[in-house]
Amino acid sequence: MIRVAVVGAAGYIGGELLRLLVSHPDVELAAATSRSLQGRQIDGVHPNLRSRTTLRFSAEDELDHYDAIFLATPHRETMARMTEFLGLARTVIDLSGDFRLASTAAYEDYYGTPHTAPDLIESFVTGLPELHREALRTADRISVPGCMASAGILALTPLAHAGLIRGEITVDARTGSSGSGAKAGSENLHAERSGALRVFAPTRHRHEAEISQATGLPVRMTATGVEAVRGVQLVSRAHLAPDVDERDIRSAYRAAYGDEPFVRVVAHRRGLHRFPDAKILSGSNFCDVGFALEAGSPQVTVISALDNLVKGGAGNAVQCLNVRYGLSERAGLEFTGLHPN
Amino acid sequence: MIRVAVVGAAGYIGGELLRLLVSHPDVELAAATSRSLQGRQIDGVHPNLRSRTTLRFSAEDELDHYDAIFLATPHRETMARMTEFLGLARTVIDLSGDFRLASTAAYEDYYGTPHTAPDLIESFVTGLPELHREALRTADRISVPGCMASAGILALTPLAHAGLIRGEITVDARTGSSGSGAKAGSENLHAERSGALRVFAPTRHRHEAEISQATGLPVRMTATGVEAVRGVQLVSRAHLAPDVDERDIRSAYRAAYGDEPFVRVVAHRRGLHRFPDAKILSGSNFCDVGFALEAGSPQVTVISALDNLVKGGAGNAVQCLNVRYGLSERAGLEFTGLHPN
Amino acid sequence: MIRVAVVGAAGYIGGELLRLLVSHPDVELAAATSRSLQGRQIDGVHPNLRSRTTLRFSAEDELDHYDAIFLATPHRETMARMTEFLGLARTVIDLSGDFRLASTAAYEDYYGTPHTAPDLIESFVTGLPELHREALRTADRISVPGCMASAGILALTPLAHAGLIRGEITVDARTGSSGSGAKAGSENLHAERSGALRVFAPTRHRHEAEISQATGLPVRMTATGVEAVRGVQLVSRAHLAPDVDERDIRSAYRAAYGDEPFVRVVAHRRGLHRFPDAKILSGSNFCDVGFALEAGSPQVTVISALDNLVKGGAGNAVQCLNVRYGLSERAGLEFTGLHPN
Amino acid sequence: MIRVAVVGAAGYIGGELLRLLVSHPDVELAAATSRSLQGRQIDGVHPNLRSRTTLRFSAEDELDHYDAIFLATPHRETMARMTEFLGLARTVIDLSGDFRLASTAAYEDYYGTPHTAPDLIESFVTGLPELHREALRTADRISVPGCMASAGILALTPLAHAGLIRGEITVDARTGSSGSGAKAGSENLHAERSGALRVFAPTRHRHEAEISQATGLPVRMTATGVEAVRGVQLVSRAHLAPDVDERDIRSAYRAAYGDEPFVRVVAHRRGLHRFPDAKILSGSNFCDVGFALEAGSPQVTVISALDNLVKGGAGNAVQCLNVRYGLSERAGLEFTGLHPN
């Protein structure tokens, strides 16, 4: 059994890590920390875990040493404390934004603050098995991408790396409310957020920088909060390289994802479920990717969807753990998702 | 023109008062106060009023004297400051809970605090024109019932007053999230509240006391938060007096509401819209009331619905103003509601 | 491996059976029938099963013989064909309404049609392991209760059987839209059903008869469609027998459910998650049960919730299969549910 | 009083026309036709109109002659019967798609069928007062744009006509379920549509052609069904002409909409309500338009929102009637919209 701890376990990403880890066949969840809730039972704030665990939140200074720790801590704080965290476990899997961008200039630009641990950045491997599986097999510093970033990277890198698209990519991202976390604020009031189509980041969303970094192409992304608790969907547009046709695109996706356990290509000619929709992905670790072409148009429209808390966060992190420790990559991540839901 | 002010205008009931008053043909909205937002434009927090008003929030000490003021202030504070408020206008229309219950014992029992202005209680007329129209024509102290209370009182008093029901009434109340107000708290986080069926008051909800007071019968009410921003629906059950049949019930409702502009009896044998549903009432001042009997059963099931911010609050208050000032009772309250919605 | 088939697999209950059975460690899903979709891949209408199965719908005349078949067929048709179904498998697990009521008079009363296979009724065991586990260990004809019935029976039988309540029970039931099945009709149009509080059965819902049969007490139930796809919640009220107090009720539930894998008692004094809420149960096989008392009141309010397609249908059926075939009762039913969701 | 009739009044656009017309101060609603519901009261399917009208649906052959008729009839049928309709009223206001496109080639391309009344196309004036007010003052054949088209045309024509943008425009459109009409089909089943992010038109949506026609620029639009009953929001992107800055864009919008009663420019630096959101527009005739620029980027992102049944359909049609008959342009269209909602 791999002995793990979750730091910052009271929030939504933290809770989702707990959900996956308590049911993981090869993992012992040894500790879950929360400053505000230490000593309290974790099923008090994560009621779906009732009867599944009797674990209580612990204080951070109660942590000892683990095979792996998961960091569901805020950006800024995470980089400030990373040296401390590295001392707590062989493997550190960071879900904050602090070690996602290789460029400190990009970090400062998108996060509005200088990076305070620049020497550590290079040691982190991007926690996306579909692109970095080999490196992850031996990685002990893993930085999991942002939720919308993962949906964009998985949608676009097969085309970008195969040279099928070029120039600027535009991304229209839609996200559920759990992406904002469990902090109460007027922006997350049910009466304000319910049914909203809130363009909260018309430009310059942080995840844009990750997609650009992974594809090597400029990206312009708009992010809208839609009526959903979980779920991210991206509609991306890119210009095709000359003479690229549908078969080339299908081939590129097949080459990239034909053997992947958690990426499915969904692009049908008709039906209710032609393209990826986050509605059926809640709780699952799938990222669905699809595309559409238009006769005579030089553009491709790519649609991708995932559960922001699972493949866009905690599930992806667990998948990285599975890769790192040589487990079945599906271990603890078998849930199919629900339909209807 | 009747010159009015709204005290506590930044919240949801306050905002709904502003919405109705800026469009009211016979009213001049002269002031809207907010401690936290004074000097700010009211359409900043009430964006539906963009282009309809340039009014700014004022401080309370900027108030002078008005024909009428509406109090959308918290309970406790309202009774503590009532003498001050009474000096500001000829007519005070209070939407807090402080002057709804005639009995100070009941108040203390349900609100958990002693009443601090007991001498004033008797001077308030209940702001429900369907039951108190004559008194309201000359009333200058008006206390508007609670949202669920209005739905319950309008549903049950015609039967209770006609002697058609007796014994204990049970009420199952469902309410949208706007009833909790605009304060951010974890209970109102979208991710927590969305899709919830939260039994937040299994017993002893405050509005229960108002229904009991109006019907003269004991009431046991359970309140559940359901997925909606606006809207209240009550399913009430009572035992019929001997030999009461459907005609008696229809007659009682017809006698009570045949001429009422804002209460409709909705009880069909079939169809999608057989019974009252708050879904089609958003923004309207209607309270719909319906009922069902069962062959051989001594019970009647009564269903009622309204928009908690309109007929359950601001709209009802404006209707009282109309009655008090001899205006058309429908003035400013003509919106029909939307279908579908 | 237990070899099973699902008859009527294109609908929502059928799809949920497929979801559970394709992931069940001890089951081989051998066939799934649909008249309208025979030959089509099952993930076309159940898109959550993409990459999890390549099974296609088969015609009913392609069925051979199985260890167990699950019937997700309409009432009336099910009883008319039961002899045929009994020939297809050792164990028949019926999810229709046809064999739930022991009394043919009650059946005719609630279903509006005479029972056409009265001789078979007695041979069916009620598919609710919490009440009928011993009989289910050897049962080859199993009738799974209705979704709201299961929530009511699990909530109320511990109190009824212990003699803690008496007289008439009133039940206020709320249900999501998936309970109406996958047939398109105006009552299920999104624009009509979204946000609705639709009292579709003010009296005489069929599931009422099942709760009455199980508790031995008269039941009056009202059913309301609320905004949810999955989920059932019941608020039930009953009169306490003399001298019954909170400890008695807790004891009764503890005795009934202390060792049950899928029933949790949820009754806290405070917090967002004081009482059962279907919101966190989607996809899980839990039925949560809670209660509230009021000082001085002779009533108990019981709240129960489940996912209508899982513990209210397909999950319950799989749990029965597990009991019947001596498997771990949790096999295939481990999903915890999501929070937030 | 202007005497009007609505043809095809049982659907959602028809119902919305009835809602606006029964409350219109200068209109007499003389007839509302429905083939399937003739003789039935209109509040049976439009329950929001209870107590507001006793009108019944009539057969089409009961129509006589009106000042104006509104056509809420399907495309194809509308052009086939247009000669007949033109004989029924002085003014025909068509809400179908048949007379929106000036080019019969574009019509055939987007609608998949040849135009059968090409000689009539030129006689229709586009029913968008913001662009065609002068022509509408005397127009007796008016073709109201599509819901997403109106949101796109109002967002983009001020920039296109001022030469501030050039090249291809991309549009990401999101729409509620009422846009699909009141016909029951599996695509509109609540269980399927609730919470969906369904990319139903990745390319070639019909409304794209209207935006292109109005702006004179190529348009590529993707349409996604989102969780909402009412509401359309578009996020459009275009390349700026050289040296265009924020002031130019604000000036163009001010010039276009400074005096418009129903278009508001909404583009704030911060706050929950920075950009247009359909959530607060339900029932209102507003189209809100906003935009965002990014330092160093040659693109502008334009956000627009409206209620698809009001400014995207019935409200726009009534506004055209007001212009044509010299009424106050706001007559019958005063509802502000709700917040929260």
UniProtKB/TrEMBL annotation, chains A, B, C, D:
Q: Name one GO cellular component term.
A: cytoplasm
Residues of the active site are 147
Q: Which UniProt keywords apply?
A: Amino-acid biosynthesis, Arginine biosynthesis, Cytoplasm, NADP, Oxidoreductase
The answer, when asked if Manganese is one of the entry's keywords, is: no
Alphabetical list of Gene3D superfamilies matching this protein: Dihydrodipicolinate Reductase, domain 2, NAD(P)-binding Rossmann-like Domain
Places the protein is found: Cytoplasm
Q: Which PANTHER family match?
A: [LYSW]-L-2-AMINOADIPATE_[LYSW]-L-GLUTAMATE PHOSPHATE REDUCTASE-RELATED (PTHR32338:SF11), N-ACETYL-GAMMA-GLUTAMYL-PHOSPHATE REDUCTASE, CHLOROPLASTIC-RELATED-RELATED (PTHR32338)
Record-given protein name: N-acetyl-gamma-glutamyl-phosphate reductase
Q: What organism is this sequence from?
A: Saccharothrix violaceirubra
